[in-house]
């Protein structure tokens, strides 16, 4: 019954302990669930209203604790944690599996010609740019000009990197050339993410004390956040771009694949999707969403300000983004 539902459930934090990898993994399996992409606007709005009402001490009649947590995870999958704005659908982490499996499967299938490499790397990095901007940390907006410069810089740098790896791979055995897309994606992530989040590196991201009180903005915290995201994104790509090439290299020697070559692309896409279903949440879980760092690691002026206004604070917390 709704009257039995406690108003002391901490829905500001995930349901599971974020101090452990397993707790973070359970959390991100819910947030990145591809089925969330199919939820209607009405369902998302209902989850938002349920969350806001509960925070205000208003409980919908008949609401159970499981339904409350379900609403939270629907909300978390579609709304930005800092701004509260509804995120662009393909930029949500729940869209990673369906969109990325199609793009990555195509990159692994069409890797032999330069035009194909350029096109699919551009598509992939354009998608990554949307994801990186959508899941940025902080609540400061970017102007259209800043966003345009960041996008062009990120995608151009990534495509050039991919072409460089393709040229290098032409001197390697055929099996090695299959891993060119992975090497290119890994290197491109190191370019794309910092470019799309360059405003954070310049002006910093919000840092809070353990009670959620905003203490200021820190570029050093942004560097740590972006580094963790880069590592997670490369980790996501490892299974999806390393395992299917090995399997496909073996399958393509089989008689049925030679007889039905059109099966190459769908099989590759399916293998990538299977890898991403697990790799996406598990690699998101490598680091806590609510990251932290010592006050001593902050900029000198912010460090002094915190020591004056909140002398007992030794650690600050921030949303690292995804």
TrEMBL record:
Its membrane topology: Multi-pass membrane protein
Domain of life of the organism encoding this protein: Eukaryota
Principal location class: mitochondrion
Entry's Gene Ontology molecular function annotations: monoatomic ion transmembrane transporter activity
Any GO BP: serine import into mitochondrion
Range of residues in the leader sequence: none
Cellular localisation: Mitochondrion membrane
Pfam families: SFXNs
Catalytic activity: L-serine(in) = L-serine(out)
GO annotation, cellular component aspect: mitochondrial inner membrane
UniProt keywords, alphabetically: Amino-acid transport, Membrane, Mitochondrion, Transmembrane, Transmembrane helix, Transport
Transmembrane segments: 149-169, 175-195, 225-247, 267-287
PANTHER family: SIDEROFLEXIN, SIDEROFLEXIN-3
Reported function: Mitochondrial serine transporter that mediates transport of serine into mitochondria, an important step of the one-carbon metabolism pathway. Mitochondrial serine is converted to glycine and formate, which then exits to the cytosol where it is used to generate the charged folates that serve as one-carbon donors.
Similarity-based family: Belongs to the sideroflexin family.
The protein, known as: Sidoreflexin
